[in-house]
Specification:
Blueprint lengths: L6 H11 L1 H10 L7 H13 L2 E5 L6 H12 L3 E5 L6 H5 E6 L4 E6 L6 E5 L6 H13 L1 E4 L2 E4 L5 E6 L12 H4 L2 E6 L5 H12 L12 H12 L5 H15 L13 E3 L3 H17 L7 H12 L4 E2 L1 H5 L4 H11 L4
Parallel strand pairs: 1-8, 1-9, 2-5, 5-8
Antiparallel strand pairs: 3-4, 6-7, 10-11
Helix pairs in contact: 3-11, 10-11, 11-12, 12-14
């Protein structure tokens, strides 16, 4: 059985390691007003080495957020606008024949950046979406006979518009499962929107400075791994994930015929990782149930399949996750 670490010493260590988070959030707040959930989701993805799927109507600062994050870390950023005529080589790169030297040369695509924005990912066909799979899972790209490692840190933020579905290709479950979080964006509050409007009318966006290095991010990931998670919290995470598969075993009535499939083991790993990152963002060296509950909707909403009955009743994945969290006993 694993022995508990010295929590006081660990807490102090995590406080020191996570001090840069406040600096990062302060710098981002110069250009991103409100949208706390999106910024927190991006930071969790960054710390957990996971990818983010953002869903929201146009104009909610999705592109601005990841571009701003790359500037505050001094990292490389690239944007790919997904369209129905996009080819896999437009994303990952290709081999071009050099007529002068009579040999093939590798031309790397926009995927070779620290931060990659896959804008409107559901506008591209499956073969282009699948080109991202190797990069997202293996952190490498194979072109011809060679595999090329991607830079560290590497974060894909994909966006999709939930309103306009004409000419779109829904992401397959295997690819959805590769995203650590699915963050849904809502309109800003009235006063936040007033601030956004004023900022734009008074000369546009502020200039961002690089306040954190990529090495600091990589070191912070090691610190996140050291955050203590009690066995009771582990059991709570497993209960939540298993309840998405077998709700009747947890006395959650009415959901059995609403779920066509539940979260995979990747969901358990993602929930544990995201909960540790949530604790890190709050400068804490241990995970509490509130950390798990805070990240559960973003981790699980894209990992639960709805049955025809659920769709007929307009039941959402968020409602299912809420029902599970409200029913299960909190440790």
């Amino acid at each position: 059985m694993e022995t508990a670490p010295d929590i006081v010493a660990l807490n102090e260590s995590i406080k020191n390691e996570s001090a840069f988070i406040d600096l990062l959030q302060s710098e981002l707040s110069k250009v991103i007003v409100g949208q706390k959930g999106m910024v927190e989701g991006l930071l969790i993805g960054l710390l957990a080495d996971g990818h983010i799927l953002l869903e929201g109507v146009p104009g909610l600062a999705k592109t601005l957020a990841i571009n701003s994050l790359s500037k505050t870390i001094g990292a490389s950023f690239s944007r790919v606008q997904f369209t129905p005529d996009l080819l896999p080589s437009d994303v990952v790169g290709t081999q071009i024949y050099n007529m002068k030297e009579h040999k093939f040369e590798t031309k790397q695509g926009p995927i070779f950046s620290n931060f990659v924005l896959a804008d409107e990912i559901n506008r591209a066909p499956a073969k282009v979406q699948s080109a991202l799979l190797e990069a997202m899972q293996e952190r490498q790209v194979t072109l011809g006979e060679n595999s090329y490692p991607l830079p560290k840190p590497f974060l894909v933020m994909a966006t999709q518009n939930p309103v306009e579905q004409e000419g779109t290709y829904p992401l397959p479950e295997a690819q959805m499962d590769r995203f650590l979080l699915k963050v849904t964006l809502t309109y800003p509050e009235r006063e936040d929107e007033r601030t956004i409007m004023r900022n734009q009318l008074q000369g546009g966006l502020a200039t961002l400075n690089a306040v954190v290095s990529t090495d600091q991010i990589l070191n912070a990931r090691k610190a996140v791994d050291s955050i203590y998670m009690d066995e009771k919290i582990e059991s709570y995470i497993l209960d939540i994930v298993f309840a998405t598969r077998f709700p009747d075993k947890f006395n959650i009535t009415g959901l059995d015929n609403k779920i066509s499939f539940g979260a995979s083991p990747r969901g358990s790993i993602a929930l544990a990782k995201a909960a540790k990152c949530h604790a890190f963002l709050r400068h804490r060296g241990f995970v509490i149930p509130e950390d798990v509950r805070a990240v559960a909707p973003s981790v699980l909403r894209h990992r639960i399949g709805l049955s025809y009955e659920a769709e007929a009743e307009e039941l959402t994945q968020d409602a299912i996750v809420t029902e599970i969290l409200n029913t299960l006993m909190v440790p």
